[in-house]
Amino acid sequence: MDSAGEQSDEPAATSWSRDEEAALVRKLDLRLMPFAMLMFFVSYLDRGNISNARTANGFGATATPDMTGDDFQFTVSIFYVTYIIFEVPSNMVLKYFTPRVWFARIMFTWGIASACQAACQNKTGIIICRLLVGIAEAGLLPGLLFWIGFWYRKYEIATRTALIHGMLAFASAWAGLIATGIGQMNGAGGLPTWRWIFILESIPSFLLSAATLIWLPNFPHTSQNWLTPREFQIAIARLPPSAPSHLQKHFDLEIFRETIKDPMNLLYPVFMAIGVIPQLALNYFMPTVLTGMGYKGAMSNLMSAPPNLYAFIIEIANAYHSDYTQERLFHIVIPATVGMVGYVLLPISGINGWSQGMRYFLLFVANSGIASAPGWYAWRQNMTVGSTAVAFVMGWTNSVVNIAGAVSPFLFPSADAPVFYRTGGFVG
User: Is it true that domain 18-241+252-427 has CATH number 1.20.1250.20?
Assistant: First the structure.
């Protein structure tokens, strides 16, 4: 592990003890990470609630009477079109508008677009709203990963990335429970369950947007009001020159040109996308897969919680160990391999009539693959130097990875139901 205050790339005029730095990092975590985690939790709740709405009362009858066959897969996939297009532009302007303002804007606009889904009367309305949610939400995850680079050292990044990205699984776990609870409101105010899901799950977006605009810290150099003078000094001095800096231009055209020429910008996100396709697919379709296993209605939403909570825990544990050992490759390969085994065995178990319990266990195995994601993001960020380069690289990487998100819904076509899902398993 690095010795606090002894790295050659730190200013010689500043030194501190391990205890001082540990106390500072704890203070940063308590102030910064709850905001980041809640933002991504709420975003994924709003992004993925269409899956819960699909299994809720009245969705097919009153929302999408013209939606047939695999139209739902298309509706899920279309979100990623605008999401992918606006990822990089969003990241490039984040530093100019400041994280506080930009994240608040993102949450407020996606809250509006998500709530509007409750008013849809046909497939076209749902598709338009999904496109708007993609525009509004684009840039949140790469923006958060860019932002934490201003605050944390190289081998603190994976753990904080996992705390943020792990909200994907955590939100998926709670989404089913929340949707089940909202299901008790079916018919209240003359509205079916699925409309209440879109309405009620949009409210936290507006509340968190306001809180972010008021309390979110932007950068270390603007944090004199909540850090002591000593903490303020250490927070700035402990970061190496390779970290994004508030002293650099909001956008440096020359660095941008050099960055886009790097062949790693093509190879790295493509390999990452291949690795995460199955995770994204199963995340959206777990309630549907569980229905095929025999868990009907609300029970399919409830039973999706344990595998997702497991994924949340193992993702954080793997990332923490990656930072602690300062190793990335094996912390990506091992969980990805375990997840791949689970995806291959899922359709085999259905084809061969394995027990319901064994098939449910395989969901845990398959969900292990998501633990590789923080390592992928952290390793790429560790390779990159400077604000313009990091902003572009994180936005671009997430854009390419989310092409997998656009493809992944089609890995679970209706023709593969109810129990086999050969395509999703064998491609994964």
Answer: yes
Is the preceding omega at residue 409 within 30 degrees of 0, hence cis? no
How many C-alpha atoms does 257 have within 13 Å on its Cβ side?
3
Share of the chain above pLDDT 70, in %: 85
Contact assessment for residue 259 and residue 393, using Cβ atoms and an 8 Å cutoff: yes
Q: Which residue has the higher pLDDT, 381 or 51?
A: 381
Q: Whole-angstrom Cα distance, residue 117 to residue 385?
A: 41
Q: Where are the domains of the chain?
A: 18-241+252-427
Q: Any alpha helices (H) in 55-98, and if so which ranges?
A: 71-97
Distance CA 205, CA 39 (A): 8
Segment among 10-19, 169-178, 231-240, 371-380 with least mean pLDDT? 10-19
Question: What are 180's two structure tokens?
Answer: 């089940």
Question: CA-based angle 42:47:53, to the nearest 5?
Answer: 105
SS3 track for 358-409: HHHHHHHHHHHHHHHHHHHHHHHHHCCCCHHHHHHHHHHHHHHHHHHHHHHH
Residue 215 CA to residue 262 CA, distance in Å, equals 37
